[in-house]
């Protein structure tokens, strides 16, 4: 019997899943899903229990969805190399044929690129065909180059070229493709999705025992350690989130920098898991390339292009995972005070807007983009702490923690990255607070001990509070020191 396996990774959805759809067509609906928990990934220093829970719940939703439409997902407690070997061994022992082909969707992180090359070699060694498809990026790194070749290192010309490409029929049809996926999701939500698949793992094993499915075990043990409220996960939740943003999109330009309100889409954590993707978002919202950044939708699309930009940078320059994009900052003289770092993590720096952001992160697993920029600038420029410390802490705590945009955001703030904030532009945390949280609503939501203070007192040093700490540094002095340190490194 000809059947296929789709190996899910960060493409946790059925709607608009190109590799899965291709398999479904070629194997006439006989396609099964596999997910492998890779110990190498789970043992990373920046592993986050909270983000993992959100991820696990997306897998639970996916498994349920696959069962509803006639397939199933097998979740293995072992990396793909050993996982597939084990699976193939058991299939052979049960005298069941190996799959006709195994598919997956492309990933661009250095770890993933190496893993996927290994998987391709493994499939070859078993005589099993394999293929992969484009997934969460609309334009892949190899598709967008400067006229003379090579990738862009500045965002504006990158974005121009990206827009130009997306006007092209071929790229535009990619967005169109996802409309079908969105219609399918509507049917699924209404309980009317067709049984598009025709094979389950139980049916394949025909009474023989296959490998143990560990999903429930993982969910149970991880959920006991979670420290924030986990939002609803999965494609249907992502679509709901997207649609709730549609009505607010016109105001995006005006409201996206105000952390006390929901002015942004809050889609990032769904995009991280592939519950929804950039082209799906564009298809649903009807986003058009080459807007003049005047409307909310133009500005929103611009942010999605930033996301693609950082993926292209990571794919073309994998070294940025561990070192500054701008090599002159390789030996920058960081102070790296552990005491200051702890105060920053705990939200006890004495700078209310910074502390509110860090407490929002700890309490909810999320932080507003404007505040991410403020706390990152504060850590790297005011405290002169290595951006990699901040980057890792964000990965340990963010529900949307994602290597490419996180690394890009940190290196932007630290002025070490590709097209970063110039080193001499140092955010003044007092002015930032005053500008973006003038009435202190956001600050007071997370820094409860400042609740009774009048708003105007929140944007200058508070030296006489019983509980709230005095500022741990003097911004003006630290600014001068930072300028000096950066100048010396240049
Ligand atoms: C220091 C720092 C660390 C960051 N770490 C991450 C991270 O780990 N994961 C992550 O997804 N984003 C990260 N960002 C980018 C940005 O803060 C988040 O994507 C955004 O806050 C998510 O909220 P949203 O979905 O409501 O965004 P919206 O404003 O609604 O934007 C829509 C989408 O565009 C993308 N996007 C928005 N802003 C950026 C940006 N500056 N760079 C790249 N993509 C962007 C995201 O996918 C986002 O979901 C970081 C930014 C900074 C400054």
TrEMBL record:
<feature type="binding site">
    <location>
        <begin position="400"/>
        <end position="402"/>
    </location>
    <ligand>
        <name>FAD</name>
    </ligand>
</feature>
<keyword id="KW-0157">Chromophore</keyword>
<feature type="site" description="Electron transfer via tryptophanyl radical">
    <location>
        <position position="410"/>
    </location>
</feature>
<comment type="similarity">
    <text>Belongs to the DNA photolyase family.</text>
</comment>
<dbReference type="GO" id="GO:0009416">
    <property type="term" value="P:response to light stimulus"/>
</dbReference>
<dbReference type="InterPro" id="IPR018394">
    <property type="entry name" value="DNA_photolyase_1_CS_C"/>
</dbReference>
<keyword id="KW-0456">Lyase</keyword>
<feature type="site" description="Electron transfer via tryptophanyl radical">
    <location>
        <position position="334"/>
    </location>
</feature>
<feature type="domain" description="Photolyase/cryptochrome alpha/beta">
    <location>
        <begin position="2"/>
        <end position="138"/>
    </location>
</feature>
<dbReference type="InterPro" id="IPR006050">
    <property type="entry name" value="DNA_photolyase_N"/>
</dbReference>
<dbReference type="Pfam" id="PF00875">
    <property type="entry name" value="DNA_photolyase"/>
</dbReference>
<dbReference type="Pfam" id="PF03441">
    <property type="entry name" value="FAD_binding_7"/>
</dbReference>
<dbReference type="InterPro" id="IPR014729">
    <property type="entry name" value="Rossmann-like_a/b/a_fold"/>
</dbReference>
<dbReference type="InterPro" id="IPR036134">
    <property type="entry name" value="Crypto/Photolyase_FAD-like_sf"/>
</dbReference>
<feature type="binding site">
    <location>
        <position position="252"/>
    </location>
    <ligand>
        <name>FAD</name>
    </ligand>
</feature>
<feature type="binding site">
    <location>
        <position position="300"/>
    </location>
    <ligand>
        <name>FAD</name>
    </ligand>
</feature>
<dbReference type="GO" id="GO:0000719">
    <property type="term" value="P:photoreactive repair"/>
</dbReference>
<dbReference type="GO" id="GO:0003677">
    <property type="term" value="F:DNA binding"/>
</dbReference>
<protein>
    <recommendedName>
        <fullName>Deoxyribodipyrimidine photo-lyase</fullName>
        <ecNumber>4.1.99.3</ecNumber>
    </recommendedName>
</protein>
<dbReference type="GO" id="GO:0003904">
    <property type="term" value="F:deoxyribodipyrimidine photo-lyase activity"/>
</dbReference>
<keyword id="KW-0285">Flavoprotein</keyword>
<dbReference type="GO" id="GO:0071949">
    <property type="term" value="F:FAD binding"/>
</dbReference>
<dbReference type="InterPro" id="IPR036155">
    <property type="entry name" value="Crypto/Photolyase_N_sf"/>
</dbReference>
<dbReference type="InterPro" id="IPR005101">
    <property type="entry name" value="Cryptochr/Photolyase_FAD-bd"/>
</dbReference>
<feature type="binding site">
    <location>
        <begin position="303"/>
        <end position="310"/>
    </location>
    <ligand>
        <name>FAD</name>
    </ligand>
</feature>
<feature type="site" description="Electron transfer via tryptophanyl radical">
    <location>
        <position position="387"/>
    </location>
</feature>
<dbReference type="InterPro" id="IPR002081">
    <property type="entry name" value="Cryptochrome/DNA_photolyase_1"/>
</dbReference>
<feature type="binding site">
    <location>
        <begin position="264"/>
        <end position="268"/>
    </location>
    <ligand>
        <name>FAD</name>
    </ligand>
</feature>
<keyword id="KW-0274">FAD</keyword>
């Amino acid at each position: 019997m000809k059947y296929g396996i789709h190996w899910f990774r960060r493409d946790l959805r059925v709607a608009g899943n190109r590799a899965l759809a291709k398999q479904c067509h070629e194997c006439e609906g006989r396609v099964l899903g596999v997910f492998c928990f890779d110990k190498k990934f789970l043992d990373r220093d920046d592993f986050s229990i909270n983000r993992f829970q959100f991820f696990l719940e997306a897998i639970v939703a996916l498994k349920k969805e696959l069962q509803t439409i006639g397939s199933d997902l097998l979740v293995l407690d072992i990396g793909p190399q050993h996982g597939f070997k084990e699976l193939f061994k058991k299939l052979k022992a049960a005298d069941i044929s190996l799959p006709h082909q195994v598919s997956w969707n492309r990933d661009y992180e250095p770890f993933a690129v190496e893993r996927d090359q290994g998987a391709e070699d493994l499939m070859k060694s078993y005589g099993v065909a394999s293929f992969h498809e484009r997934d969460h990026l609309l334009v892949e790194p190899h598709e967008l180059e400067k006229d003379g070749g090579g990738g862009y290192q500045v965002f504006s010309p990158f974005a121009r070229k990206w827009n130009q490409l997306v006007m092209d029929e071929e790229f535009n049809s990619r967005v169109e493709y996802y409309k079908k996926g969105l219609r399918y999701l509507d049917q699924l939500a209404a309980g009317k999705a067709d049984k598009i698949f025709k094979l389950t793992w139980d049916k394949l094993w025909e009474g023989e025992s296959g490998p143990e499915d560990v999903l429930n075990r993982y969910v149970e043990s991880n959920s006991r350690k979670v420290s924030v409220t986990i939002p609803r996960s999965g494609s249907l939740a992502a679509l709901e989130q997207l649609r709730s943003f549609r009505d607010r999109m016109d105001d995006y330009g005006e409201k996206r920098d105000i952390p006390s309100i929901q002015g942004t889409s809050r889609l990032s954590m769904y995009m991280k898991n592939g519950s929804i993707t950039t082209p799906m978002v564009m298809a649903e919202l009807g986003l058009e390339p080459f807007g003049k950044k005047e409307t909310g939708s133009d500005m929103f699309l611009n942010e999605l292009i930033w996301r693609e930009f950082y993926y292209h940078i990571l794919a073309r320059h994998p070294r940025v995972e561990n070192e500054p994009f701008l090599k002159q900052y390789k030996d920058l003289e960081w102070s790296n005070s552990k005491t200051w770092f702890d105060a920053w993590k705990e939200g006890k720096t004495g700078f209310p807007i910074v502390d509110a952001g860090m407490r929002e992160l700890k309490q909810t697993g999320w932080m507003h983009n404007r505040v991410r920029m403020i706390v990152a600038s504060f850590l790297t420029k005011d405290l002169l702490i290595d951006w990699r410390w901040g980057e890792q802490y964000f990965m340990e705590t963010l529900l949307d923690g994602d290597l490419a945009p996180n690394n890009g955001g940190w290196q932007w703030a630290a002025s070490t990255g590709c097209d970063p904030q110039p080193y001499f532009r140092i955010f003044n945390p007092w002015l930032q607070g005053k500008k973006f949280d003038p009435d202190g609503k956001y600050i007071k939501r997370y820094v409860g001990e400042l609740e009774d203070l009048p708003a105007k007192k929140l944007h200058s040093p508070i030296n006489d509070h019983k509980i709230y700490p005095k500022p741990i540094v003097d911004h003006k002095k630290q600014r001068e020191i930072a300028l000096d340190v950066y100048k010396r490194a240049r």
